[in-house]
Design goal:
Layout lengths: L3 H9 L20 E11 L4 E4 L5 H14 L16 E5 L11 E5 L3 E6 L2 H13 L8 E10 L5 E7 L7 H13 L4 E5 L1 E2 L2 E2 L8 H4 L3 E2 L20 E2 L4 H12 L4 E8 L4 H6 L28 H17 L4 E5 L6 H5 L1 H9 L5 H18 L3 E5 L12 E4 L4 H8 L4 E3 L10 E2 L10 E4 L2 H5 L10 H4 L2 E8 L7 H8 L2 H10 L7 H19 L12
Parallel strand pairs: 2-3, 3-5, 7-8, 7-20, 8-13, 13-14, 14-15, 15-16, 16-17, 17-20, 18-19
Antiparallel strand pairs: 1-6, 4-5, 4-6, 9-10, 11-12
Helix pairs in contact: 2-3, 4-6, 8-11
The structure holds ligand TNX.
Ligand TNX binds next to strand 19.
Length: 537
């Protein structure tokens, strides 16, 4: 409930038409085409909102927004051209020729029209919201304009690692809110790792009883900037299946798909702590990892393990409607497999070349299972080693080469190379001035200038680049504020890499003109962020 006092302050505040001289009118990601026109539309409590389908989820999102930000409480009505007032009309008519996820936004003094189908309508609404003043007010002046817009890439992703540090459902939703505001459409949820298993699996209760908890918490840095320290308090957390369903639904209301990641065969020490029989030597004592890094204890490619992972993935696929299921594949040291009699016999029996062949066999078997359920796998670029699974999509993280090789083999690719500034767990300024982080200095200017289509690929091969993603690993990110600080504003640069046509990208305009306006909005929403210097460092 908004108090009377607050409401009168709202009405009295003077409002400015935003970004007069900015060719992109403050919009991030910069649209395909923006044509300014004279005049303005005044959105007030008298304005009428109409839609082809008032129950459409993008329409519902918009009316919720107006209620929460403008204390606007009128119901959305169906189309009536004779409403006799200023109108905002949300429609899918006339959008036949728009590319997927595209929209048209037309603002005249009498009417705002947002035209788009599905996600397109939602993105048109996001743009409209960005044209409104950041502060809460009962009226808003919108500059007249004609915008036509659609994304450069269909996959626009952001990853969150909830294993090294755990984040609440409430915060995950806040993260998703940010993605939606910037037209990102795939939330990659890194749910299992050596340091913690974070998703409830009914069939395997020890995953949450044991694998979701570690005995102590690291508070130092393994990259030698400070010695590693422990605070001796246990650390843990997981999401129940109901919570997962809730997040998936919340994301879907914002046209965001949630890609779950279940790591295999590596990054699995937490699972082995719960179920040692999935290792190659069950007699050993496995603990949920308490330090960061890469661990030798990985799943054994045994029938027990395959049965376990299939049952886990069955529950995962019931929870996540995503076409893509991420099965990890990265950083799986082969030491244990090399020394295991069982693995060496299996390599002989299957006529494989070596342990890399065995990793490929592992991934291919899991792919077959996932495909049999009508889904597809994504794996980190290590899945190229020993031969790609036939239908796999590759996430290229160790530079672009993995992505280039995969595209040349006619496989789909998502680019997420650390070398492109997409590892946003790295510092975004000078290491001696920034909070503790892993890796080097990856300023906002670097991620902004990343182009996901390598020149080494032909135009035909470039079609396999589905899109781009930034990753937030959380070894040194224990708090929500620090998550926000690390992703902001680099996530906004990512959105422009993923959405905006190359020719429209303009770092100076992004950094100096548009970002400051978005900081005002982020302030209002209560997000933490880092202000880059004029030159983007
Ligand atoms: C590599 S990227 C990892 C993660 C770490 C990250 C730290 C990838 C597939 N694996 O396990 O958290 O580096 O930047």
């Amino acid at each position: 409930k908004i108090s009377l006092l607050f409401f009168s302050v709202l009405i009295c505040s003077t409002l400015v038409v935003k970004a007069q001289d900015d060719p992109n009118m403050g919009i991030i990601p910069a649209p395909v085409s923006v044509k300014k026109m004279p005049g303005e539309f005044v959105l007030s409590q008298q304005t009428i909102i109409q839609a082809d389908t008032p129950s459409n989820k993008a329409v519902v999102f918009f009316s919720d927004y107006l209620r929460d930000n403008m204390a606007y409480n009128k119901q959305v009505g169906i189309r009536n051209a004779n409403a006799g007032s200023t109108v905002i009309y949300l429609t899918s008519t006339g959008t036949e020729n728009l590319p997927a996820e595209g929209y048209r936004l037309t603002i005249t003094p009498k009417q705002v029209t947002v035209a788009g189908k599905g996600a397109g309508l939602f993105y048109g609404i996001q743009t409209l919201i960005q044209l409104m003043p950041a502060e809460r007010a009962a009226t808003a002046k919108l500059p007249c304009v004609q915008i036509e817009d659609y994304p450069r890439f269909g996959y626009r992703g952001l990853m969150l690692d909830v294993c090294r540090h755990f984040f609440s459902v409430e915060f995950v939703k806040k993260y998703i809110d940010l993605m939606a505001a910037y037209k990102l459409n795939n939330f990659h949820w890194h749910l299992t790792d050596d340091q913690g298993w974070r998703i409830e699996i009914k069939k395997y209760p020890k995953l949450t009883q044991i694998a979701s908890q570690r005995a102590q918490t690291v508070i130092g840095n393994y990259h030698d900037r400070t010695p590693q320290q422990y605070d001796n308090t246990p650390y843990g957390g997981y999401y129940t299946q109901d919570q997962i369903r809730d997040v998936v639904k919340y994301a879907a209301a914002r046209y965001i798909n949630v890609v779950p990641e279940i790591e295999m065969p590596g990054h699995s020490q937490a699972a082995l702590a719960a179920y040692p029989e999935l290792s190659c030597d069950p007699s050993l004592d496995y603990k949920v990892a308490e330090t960061w890094g890469v661990f030798n204890n990985i799943y054994c490619p045994s029938e027990k393990t395959f049965a376990f992972l299939q049952e886990v993935l069955t529950e995962v696929m019931d929870l996540f409607p995503s076409k893509y299921i991420h099965i990890g594949g990265d950083e799986a040291p082969k030491t244990v497999w090399k020394n295991s009699k069982f693995c060496q016999n299996l390599i002989k029996k299957l006529k494989l070349k070596d342990e890399h062949g065995l990793q490929s066999y592992f991934i291919q078997r899991m792919e077959k299972f996932v495909n049999s359920k009508g889904r597809s796998i994504i794996g980190w670029d290590e899945i190229l080693e020993g031969g790609l699974a036939p239908n796999a999509t590759v996430m290229s993280w160790r530079g672009e080469q993995g992505g280039i090789d995969a595209a040349r083999q006619n496989h789909d690719v998502i680019m997420t190379p650390g070398s492109g500034g997409l590892y946003i767990d790295h510092s975004q300024g000078r290491l001696d001035e920034e909070p503790l982080s892993i890796g080097g200095n990856e300023p906002v200017s670097k991620i902004y200038s990343y182009n996901p289509t390598p020149a080494a690929l032909t135009t035909e091969q470039q079609k396999h680049i589905l899109g781009v993603q930034a990753n937030l690993w959380t070894e040194y990110i224990p708090t929500e504020n620090k998550v926000e600080y690390m992703i902001l504003p680099r996530m906004l640069a990512l959105s422009e890499v993923a959405w905006t046509p190359l020719a429209n990208k303009d770092f100076k305009n992004f950094n100096e003109t548009r970002l400051p306006e978005h900081f005002a909005w982020l302030d209002k929403e209560g997000y933490d962020y880092r202000v880059p210097a004029a030159f983007g460092t």
